[in-house]
Automatic annotation (TrEMBL):
It comes from Streptomyces kronopolitis. The keyword Transmembrane helix does not apply. Transmembrane segments: none annotated. SMART domains: FCD (SM00895), HTH_GNTR (SM00345). The lineage of its organism: Bacteria, Bacillati, Actinomycetota, Actinomycetes, Kitasatosporales. Keywords: DNA-binding, Transcription, Transcription regulation. Residues 13-80 form the HTH gntR-type domain. The keyword DNA-binding applies. This is GntR family transcriptional regulator. Pfam families: FCD, GntR. It comes from the Bacteria.
Length: 234
């Protein structure tokens, strides 16, 4: 294929991606509400794209559970409970559109059921590389005094490393769901309060238990960390 052919293909992919993002943003922010019908000509006009791109954008959002179709209504916005929040794109769009406190509460319940168990598995299965990643996150957290952006990144790195250290492929993948919500919560706390209170000692206690292969201790230390974070940053 010629260089121009590659450029055309890349440009087409870019237009498609932008159309999906734009349509998803309109739905997540309520321009199109649950049950609203969407026609291809309407999407073409709204996004100023071709029929091919409009159809592709609708198909992409249907695959993520946001749009549905039937003979009576055509293409329509599905109920929010049908949206696949475990899909990283859907979650990103949801966070960008704004979430309520009960959304964070739901994720905390998810985290309380997963992260202590992941820490317990990490205590049993961790490798030297896992410990190195956890230690690096702790060092970054300790060095983040006065730098809230660095603290948010260090906290995200810690929880990612702990899920990976479980050496369970499903827990490891859940950082794609847990960490973006954690980062968003930290940013909102920072915007509201102007600072974050990092429970560094509580993080270190989890790592100490993992290092010592204390399975029960790692479980309880992670549970305490999550509860402490929830109390300090409700």
């Amino acid at each position: 294929m010629s260089r121009s052919g590659h450029a055309t293909s890349a440009a087409g992919h870019g237009v498609h991606t932008m159309a999906v993002e734009a349509l998803a943003t309109r739905i997540l922010k309520g321009t199109y509400r649950e049950g609203d019908s969407l026609s291809v000509p309407e999407v073409m006009a709204e996004l100023d794209v071709s029929q091919t791109v409009a159809r592709a954008a609708i198909k992409a959002l249907a695959a993520k559970g946001i749009l549905g179709a039937d003979t009576e209504h055509g293409t329509f916005v599905r109920p929010r409970e049908d949206w696949n929040l475990l899909d990283t794109d859907v979650l990103r769009w949801k966070l960008a559109a704004g979430v309520s406190s009960d959304f964070f509460a739901d994720v905390l319940e998810l985290r309380r059921s997963i992260e202590p168990a992941a820490a317990a598995l990490a205590a049993e299965r961790r490798t030297e590389d896992d410990l190195a990643a956890l230690d690096a996150a702790l060092r970054a957290m300790a060095a983040s005094t006065g730098d809230p952006v660095m603290l948010v990144r260090a906290d995200a790195s810690f929880h990612t490393a702990m899920l990976v250290a479980s050496n369970n492929r499903f827990y490891a993948q859940l950082h794609r769901v847990i960490v973006p919500v954690l980062v968003q919560r930290d940013r909102e706390v920072l915007a509201a309060a102007g600072a974050l209170t990092p429970p560094h000692a509580a993080h270190a206690a989890v790592v100490d238990a993992v290092r010592s292969r204390d399975i029960d201790g790692a479980y309880m230390a992670m549970l305490e960390l999550l509860d402490l974070s929830a109390r300090e940053h409700p």
